[in-house]
């Protein structure tokens, strides 16, 4: 795994080859999420990043969450990345609470594919990857 060449998708286009350390950095920054497909020359198949056995603490989707801990549904700590009014750029909105984001998902104002961040995370994560919103 250490010396293998890796590939990942960006906007549905394969990128690479890169080394395993670059894959780890892309995961840490949130550029590769747990459900994003990556491939390794040694295996040749495309699998979700989770399936390759990377340390889960690298993924912003798991950072700052402790299973079984109560979720502070009304704390405004989440920043949402959305398209600008003209659709030409991405802008940050918030902070929002878990409850507000869940309501925005129900009303389809935002999609589970939108990116989200809060203090303590190393990068952006898709809403669908965060356990607070599942």
TrEMBL record:
The organism's taxonomic lineage, starting at the top: Bacteria, Pseudomonadati, Bdellovibrionota, Bdellovibrionia, Bdellovibrionales
Pfam family name, one: GYF_2
Stored InterPro entries: GYF_2
GYF domain sequence ranges: 6-51, 91-133
Protein name per the record: GYF domain-containing protein
């Amino acid at each position: 795994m250490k010396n293998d060449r890796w590939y990942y998708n960006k906007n549905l286009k394969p990128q690479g080859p890169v080394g395993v350390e670059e894959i780890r950095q892309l995961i840490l920054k949130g550029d590769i999420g747990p459900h994003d497909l990556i491939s390794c020359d040694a295996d040749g198949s495309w699998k979700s990043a989770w399936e390759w056995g990377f340390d889960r603490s690298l993924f912003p989707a798991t950072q700052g969450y402790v299973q079984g801990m109560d979720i502070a549904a009304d704390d405004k700590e989440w920043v949402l990345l959305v398209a600008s009014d003209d659709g030409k750029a991405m802008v940050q909105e918030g902070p929002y609470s878990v409850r507000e984001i869940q309501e925005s998902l129900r009303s389809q104002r935002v999609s589970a594919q939108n990116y989200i961040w809060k203090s303590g995370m190393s990068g952006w994560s898709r809403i669908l990857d965060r356990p607070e919103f599942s």
